[in-house]
Amino acid sequence: MDEILKTAKSCRHYAMCKIDFLGSGVCASGLEKNFVSYYPQGRMILYEALAENRIPVTEKCVDIADSCNLCGKCDYQCYFLNEMRPVKVMEALKEHVENFVKNGGEIKSAKEDSILSEIQEIVGVSWATNDEAITVTYSHDLSAISDPKYPDYIVMPETKEEIASLVKLFRNKNIRYTIRGNGQNLLGFAVNEGVIIDLNRMKTIEFDEKNWLAKVGPGVTAFDLQKQAQKRGYRINAAEPAALLCGNIMCSGIMSTFSTTYGINADNFINAEFVDKDGLLFNLNDISSPNLYSYKNLQHNDSPGICISASIRLHPVTSDETGILVPFETLDKALDFIKDCAVRHIGLALGIVGAEYISTFLSPTKKMASEIKSIFTDKLNIPWLVVFIGDKYAIRAINDMGLPFFDQNLFKSLYLGLPSLKTAQWLSLVKELSDDEPYSYLKIKGFSELFETALSPSPKLYSQEVDKELIPFFEKLFSRQEMTDLVWLNMYRIMSTRLGRKKPFLPALLYLPVDKDLINEFSGKFRLIAEKHHIDNDFGFITPIDNGKRCIFEYDFFYDYNDPEEIERIRKVATEANMLIDDYSVKTGTVKGHPYVLYQGFCRKENLLYS
Ligand code: SF4
């Protein structure tokens, strides 16, 4: 496979190219045309389909190729996350179509179709299509579980009335339809035949500050609402930045490291509105509405309808919030710490991560991530870190506990000085300053200054690791304060997609007591399942919730989407991991998890955790 096609087929489909997470701008044609086909993400699938002769050159195909001005914004975004350069694919797409036209190729027009005409009567001619260049870009994501499926029509409604009319039309004509947010459903639920209803035009945000809420349309991303909320002095509890809030709640509910304080599932919203399967409207405060606050354990749930708005809770923010990283030699000690903090209500956001993840999040390239990981584990003996966000009182409490930690300044030096971390000079400094207490050098007065001198951190140093042409952009980017601010990074979570940089991943996600034996047992058994099927795997994260009585635990399995054998093996891993969770769920009564949380994201956390 040539490099360009390989890049196209490696798109992670996380939809990060749809949000301006680097402040470098978003693909202009995507913002104008809205169909995913006009964003870099869709163009990757389109190129792949053309290169493999799976679709003809159509009218929309020519328009999509023409509308790319090779601005290069997608290179910045995609390299930051995945170390990929999609502009080469965009050039190849334009060249392919231009050559086809130059050589007198016949451009295929979309088929006349009575169903399409009826759909267009509801949403307008521009917002529904059966052109193959558009439909093919909705045919797959990188889900390991589902196979590609080719929809007949894509429709982009703008109002809830349009959605209700569409649902009635599809019900009367017995047409299958599927709702799509930003399309990164791990189980492939956003991919189907029939009609795909893409909600990305419905981006309204209405703030109601006296009631501490923001009512959002179903096309609003976590990133965009967080940005608007922050401008007004608030925060929302947000999951992946490109995930649409309504879709996220609809699927498995919103969770993040801030769930320690803000909760999960129904804790995150005040109300939500739906269009049901008959095209009728309801909201969660209607006495006759379906009870979406309940949780059905060990049962697969059907979608209750289409969520057309959610009123998201706004949380106050104080000016003294800061982030720290607390290192631990063992997972057990880290678990003791987060449980203690959660029970005592110390800190706003808490999460345990391993050395693999922290080095992946912080490093701009895969090569550097693997070098840094061995420094953390082998040289510094830091296999585990707790990411902790809190106000000045919370930080004072951690100081009172006597624990050494990397404060915000040390973190910034560590981050921008990562390339120097590899040198022996720095490591000998740490050894000289250490006594018997692990990481005691972090408590030495003046260590921060020594650390800075040893690493000479700077945006320039950090950026030396990236592709030459991208160095000036990275240098400017890392001069911005928020890019090294632990609070901002946790609020916006732009680094978490770097987790899929080596390979896409399938997470096992479960809720369970903060019980060291149980968590170690699960980790060991997940690892054995993965090793049996030769699948890369690693501990994801743990965040305490519900005052330390429970936690969220993610364990990840990595796979090559383009290797059919590996797909077979990851599917076996998924089945066995789910069976393991079921087993423990029945045995303990306190373990809950995937895949049952899907379509139950609106439930009360109490029903999920204690039913
Ligand atoms: S290079 Fe093309 S596809 Fe990439 S952001 Fe610019 S216009 Fe969009």
The computed structural class is alpha+beta
Q: Count of helical segments?
A: 26
Query: Span from first to last CA?
Result: 51 Å
pLDDT < 50 stretches: none
Strand tally is 18
What percent strand? 15-25%
Description:
By secondary structure, the chain is an alpha+beta fold. It is 41% helix and 15% strand. It has 26 helices and 18 strands. It has a seven-stranded antiparallel beta sheet with strand order 12-14-13-16-17-15-18. The N and C termini lie far apart (51 Å). The model has no long low-confidence stretch (mean pLDDT 93). The structure holds iron/sulfur cluster (SF4).
What would you say about this model in short?
By secondary structure, the protein is α+β, with helices and mostly antiparallel strands. The protein has 26 helices and 18 strands.
For this entry, give a set of tags.
globular, 7-stranded antiparallel β-sheet, 18 strands, 5-stranded antiparallel β-sheet, alpha+beta, binds iron/sulfur cluster, 611 residues
